[in-house]
Fold each of these.
Amino acid sequence: MLRALLSPEAQVQPLRDGVVTVLPPDRRAAAYDRLAPGYDLLVGSRIYNRLVWGSSPAHYAQLAATALIEGHGPALDVGAGSLVFTAEIYAATARPLILTDLSGAMLGRGARRLASKGRAIQTRRHLLLQADAAALPLRDHTFDTVMSWGFLHLFHDPAPLLAELRRVTAPGGRVHLSVLTLGGGAGDAVLRRLEARGEVYAAAPAYWLGAVRRGGLEVTDRAQEGHLLSLSAALR
Ligand SMILES: C[S@@+](CC[C@H](N)C(=O)[O-])C[C@H]1O[C@@H](n2cnc3c(N)ncnc32)[C@H](O)[C@@H]1O
């Protein structure tokens, strides 16, 4: 069932336990492969999230749970990473779910997390797929729920990513995003430091809301918890 959501030309190959890829061998290494163990320890930590971002893993998980409860049919997470916040929610959903990321190491961790929740992975309900978000190997207008958590701020120009998210969203479907923003708190210094290393783009909430609108999406709900802006949008 899940393979039917992929573009007909997608060449899917096994990558590692529980993860498949559409990338050729010379494009399978990614920056986050090296960061994956530290990412889970630091970014998954409640204290780090409270002190730096003024938010919490429970909040991130709640966003994913709400997105999945509100829709029906196939769902997609782009830049899903290691599922450090979402594995429990994704393991529990009955909806078909494709989880994509550029990093096989991050997805490998995600596959193990899903398995540890007692769910068989690579079943007909979950597909963990290494792919570039700029060229998703997915059919047009397919997913009723498209999610991307903590990912948009990696892009100085989010227009190509937003165009891809829009392309794969089914008519009447919804796009759910979260993004780290400047906001005057402790996280501003961290965002600026990551930006200096070329890892993120540090911008205020208004910038991201404008980008989403310019990307052809109508924001219907939004919330700000600390530095984390979350929003739901419909196709315009
Ligand atoms: C900050 S992490 C967020 C991961 C996850 N959504 C979370 O909330 O923990 C960003 C993720 O984006 C992935 N990534 C970076 N560039 C990408 C690209 N061009 N296409 C797909 N994934 C990408 C990284 O490998 C990493 O797993």
Note: Residues 30, 32, 79-81, 84-85, 101-103, 106, 132-134, 149-151, 154 surround S-adenosylmethionine (CB under 6 Å).
Amino acid sequence: MKRKIILLLTALLATLALAGCGTFTCDMCGKEKSGKSYSVTILDEKATICEDCHDGINAIKDAFK
Ligand SMILES: [Zn+2]
């Protein structure tokens, strides 16, 4: 019985660790996001941004073409 609980806890911790890896805070909009993150350099500063902000930057880039 005890072993089952330990196994359950281990499985739970593993799930939490995975979830933690998938979330990040976007440096542009400041929102906590899960899923795809983009590493960009804005004015010589490295930033991690979400997909929405990345699309926004691309839209601005396109506008200046
Ligand atoms: Zn964002």
Note: The CA atoms of residues 7 and 23 lie 25 Å apart.
